[in-house]
């Protein structure tokens, strides 16, 4: 895999980790790898196994393709569909649903 793709992947993982509020240490613990291994992945100097990728997706609550979505060119329909999927994903988790509800109430 090219160095450029590794860097993009690492940057995306770091971005998603921060969005979820994980420190590097807590995220590494959650996905059962060493912190220095996660650091190597996030800087594009290391790569992960498919098992690690699977654990990342679960911890970040994303589908695998979302980790490989490097660009920010997202149209309004894509944003809407993404938000619908996320709401569907959290509908059984009252705490997360309340947080999302509160966010949207304060947005408008």
Description:
Helix content is 70%, strand content 0%. The termini are far apart. The chain has two domains: 65 residues, lambda repressor-like DNA-binding domains (434 Repressor (Amino-terminal Domain)); 32 residues. It is mainly alpha-helical. The model has no long low-confidence stretch (mean pLDDT 90). The radius of gyration is 15 Å and the shape is globular. It contains seven helices and no strands.
What's the helix and strand layout?
Elements: H1 3-19, H2 24-30, H3 35-42, H4 50-60, H5 64-67, H6 76-90, H7 94-107
- What is the N-to-C order of secondary-structure elements (H for helix, E for strand)? HHHHHHH
Measured distance between first and last alpha carbons: 44 Å
Q: Rg to the nearest angstrom?
A: 15 Å
Which architecture name of the largest domain does CATH use?
Answer: Orthogonal Bundle
Helix-strand makeup class: mainly alpha
Number of structural domains: 2
Strand percent estimate: under 5%
What is the highest CATH level, the class of the largest domain? Answer: Mainly Alpha
| CATH fold-level topology of the largest domain | 434 Repressor (Amino-terminal Domain)
Average pLDDT number: 90
Output the CATH homologous superfamily of the largest domain.
lambda repressor-like DNA-binding domains
Q: What best-fitting shape do the alpha-carbon axes yield?
A: globular
Count all strands and give the number. 0
Instruction: Quickly count the helices.
Output: 7
The residue fraction in helices comes out at over 70%
Largest sheet: none
């Amino acid at each position: 895999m090219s160095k450029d793709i590794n860097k993009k992947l690492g940057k995306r993982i770091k971005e998603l980790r921060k969005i979820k509020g994980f420190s590097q240490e807590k995220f590494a613990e959650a996905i059962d790898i060493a912190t220095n291994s996660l650091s190597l992945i996030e800087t594009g100097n290391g790569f992960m196994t498919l098992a690690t990728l699977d654990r990342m997706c679960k911890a970040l609550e994303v589908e695998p393709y979302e980790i490989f979505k490097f660009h920010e060119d997202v149209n309004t329909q894509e944003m809407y569909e993404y938000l619908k999927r996320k709401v569907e994903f959290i509908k059984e988790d009252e705490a997360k649903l309340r947080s999302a509800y509160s966010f949207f109430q304060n947005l408008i």
